[in-house]
């Protein structure tokens, strides 16, 4: 019981406290306030395009090819559901019954 009460006290006293000091899980950060730019990157001057980093082109190509391969592969997989199997067996049974009754 002492262990659970100690853990409960540590969890809830930390969460309920309003101190802004250093914590084990958070830091104060490097900026005093956000500057309003995505990923803290300033936009390039007008008329100038952003230079791609070395990792971007391989990442985009790999992502595109992964989507294409998964899209084609998942659409081309065989239908192995129990409903399809039962439907095929029912059609076979109906065709066998109709051929035996026509004799």
Q: What is the element layout, followed by pairings?
A:
Layout: H1 2-16, H2 56-75, H3 82-101
Short description:
This is NADH dehydrogenase [ubiquinone] 1 beta subcomplex subunit 11, mitochondrial. The protein is an all-alpha fold. It has helices at 2-16, 56-75, 82-101.
Poorly predicted parts: none
The H-and-E topology, N to C, reads as HHH
Mean pLDDT: 84
Largest sheet: none
Number of strands: 0
Structural class from helices and strands? mainly alpha
Report the sheet-strand fraction.
Answer: under 5%
Task: Give the termini separation.
Answer: 82 Å
Shape: flat
Helix content bin: 40-55%
Radius of gyration: 32 Å
Contiguous helical run count: 3
Region (Disordered): 14-50
Protein name: NADH dehydrogenase [ubiquinone] 1 beta subcomplex subunit 11, mitochondrial
Structure description:
53% of the residues lie in helices and 0% in strands. The protein is mainly alpha-helical and 103 residues long. The chain is built from three helices and no strands. It starts with a helix and ends with a helix. It has helices at residues 2-16, 56-75, 82-101.
């Amino acid at each position: 019981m002492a262990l659970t009460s100690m853990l409960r006290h540590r969890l809830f006293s930390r969460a309920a406290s309003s101190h802004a000091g250093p914590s084990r899980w958070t830091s104060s950060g490097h900026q005093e306030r956000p500057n309003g730019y995505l990923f803290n990157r300033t936009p390039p001057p007008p008329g100038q395009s952003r230079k791609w980093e070395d990792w971007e082109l391989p990442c985009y190509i790999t992502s595109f090819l992964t989507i294409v391969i998964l899209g084609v592969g998942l659409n081309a997989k065989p239908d192995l559901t129990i409903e399809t199997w039962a439907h095929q067996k029912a059609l076979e049974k109906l065709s066998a019954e109709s051929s035996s009754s026509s004799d």
